[in-house]
Amino acid sequence: MRAPAIIQHLAWHAPRSASRGGPSPLARVATWAIAIEAVLLVGLGVAGLDDLAPPPGLPNEVAAVSPTAVLGLRLTPVHSTLIVVTGLLALAALRHQVWRRIFATGQTVVYLLITVLGLVFQGTSPPSWWLLNPADHVLHASLFLLGLVLLLLLPATPVTPSGNRTPDV
Questions:
Q1: HSE-CB of 163 using CA atoms within 13 angstroms
Q2: Quick count: other Cβ atoms within 10 Å of Cβ 162?
Q3: Among 43, 92, 137, 159, which has the highest number of CB atoms less than 10 A from its own CB?
């Protein structure tokens, strides 16, 4: 007996990751995106921290609070450290599939909060400690969106080398 045409059509479109083994092409794209993000963020954060060295004759107290402009971003020591930590966590997330999903979730939540709070406190009458400019808001919003896209690309359950999904424990 022959299966209905719609069943044959749907079977043709079924994912074949189980037969090939390993992660899906979308998960590979997400892994590469995390790797590229890690390198860029660590580089940007280190560049921001490197430019924070006080010029000769300037007191350290002034240099510690003055923001540094790198690629149009206003990088304070706290901001640069946050960017470096995000990049290092992205590098650590490359070790295991489960860590990638946890990293993407954390990045999405943290950078959504930073984006919203940065936009809320931007127009306060006495300048707040955020010291953000529009380029910083674009960076934070794009990191939020990247985390959201990574969550959509990464599988909810990791795939074993044989191609089978591991059961949720």
A1: 9
A2: 8
A3: 159
How distant, in Å, are the alpha carbons of 2, 29, 30, 88, 127 from that of 94?
A: 45, 12, 10, 10, 38
The answer to whether the CB of 82 falls within 8 A of the CB of 113 is no
Q: 159: which DSSP letter?
A: B
DSSP secondary structure string for all residues of 79-144: HHHHHHHHHHHHHHHTT-HHHHHHHHHHHHHHHHHHHHHHHHGGG-SSPPTT---HHHHHHHHHHH
pLDDT single digits (tens) 100-155: 999 999 999 999 999 998 888 776 655 555 677 788 889 999 999 999 999 988 88
What the block records as the tokens of 14 is 């079924």
**Three-state secondary structure call for residue 75:** strand
End-to-end CA distance of the chain: 40
- pLDDT (tens digit per residue) in 11-58: 444 444 444 566 788 888 888 999 999 999 999 888 887 765 655 555
